[in-house]
Amino acid sequence: MAVTMHVCVTCRGQDVGGEDRETAPRAGRRLHDALADAQRREGGPPRFRIVEVECLSNCNRGCSVALSGPGRWTYVYGDLSPALVDELLAGAARYAVTADGLVPWRERPTIFRKGVIARIPPAPKPV
Ligand code: FES
């Protein structure tokens, strides 16, 4: 499994306020757990790994995830929420079947078109 989706579990998101902000699970944690649960429910071998991470330096536009894999462009996405699990899984699955991480624009889910924060080229091969 070459592709990884890193999910920031420390993002607070926009949907929790007041006292709940201190006690409720963070939106990023809820997003990660919802993604992992949904992937398990799909059954079969997963097409990519879901890995938690603390902060992707996109705190003002969280929830945040990053998609990466060897030889592929890396993408960081923001403005996400636990309600977007199905779109995220579909977008990541589409990314996972590419050789270079470049999904044609029209085939990207709307949340990936609007929420892209950065794209980073594949690491160069050692010389
Ligand atoms: S806390 Fe999630 S990007 Fe910083």
What would your notes on this structure say?
- This protein has a five-stranded mixed beta sheet with strand order 2-1-3-4-5.
- The model has no long low-confidence stretch (mean pLDDT 92).
- It has a single domain, classed as Glutaredoxin, CATH 3.40.30.
- With 127 residues, it is α+β, with helices and mostly antiparallel strands.
- It has helices spanning 20-23, 27-42, 85-96, 110-115, and strands at 4-8, 49-53, 65-68, 74-77, 116-120.
- The protein has four helices and five strands; from the N terminus they run βααβββααβ.
- The two termini are 26 Å apart.
- It binds FE2/S2 (inorganic) cluster (FES).
- FE2/S2 (inorganic) cluster binds next to loops.
Give the rounded overall mean pLDDT.
92
Question: Which small-molecule ligands are present, each listed once?
Answer: FE2/S2 (inorganic) cluster
Shape: globular
Instruction: State the helicity in percent bands.
Output: 25-40%
What order do the helices and strands follow? EHHEEEHHE
- Find the structural class using helix and strand composition: alpha+beta
CATH architecture annotation name? 3-Layer(aba) Sandwich
Q: Bin the strand percentage.
A: 15-25%
CATH topology: Glutaredoxin
The poorly predicted ranges are none
Q: Quickly count the helices.
A: 4
CATH level-four homologous superfamily name: Glutaredoxin
Distance between the termini: 26 Å
User: What is the makeup of the main sheet?
Assistant: 5 strands, mixed
Q: Would you state the CATH class?
A: Alpha Beta
Summary tags:
127 residues, alpha+beta, Glutaredoxin, binds FE2/S2 (inorganic) cluster, 5 strands, 4 helices, globular
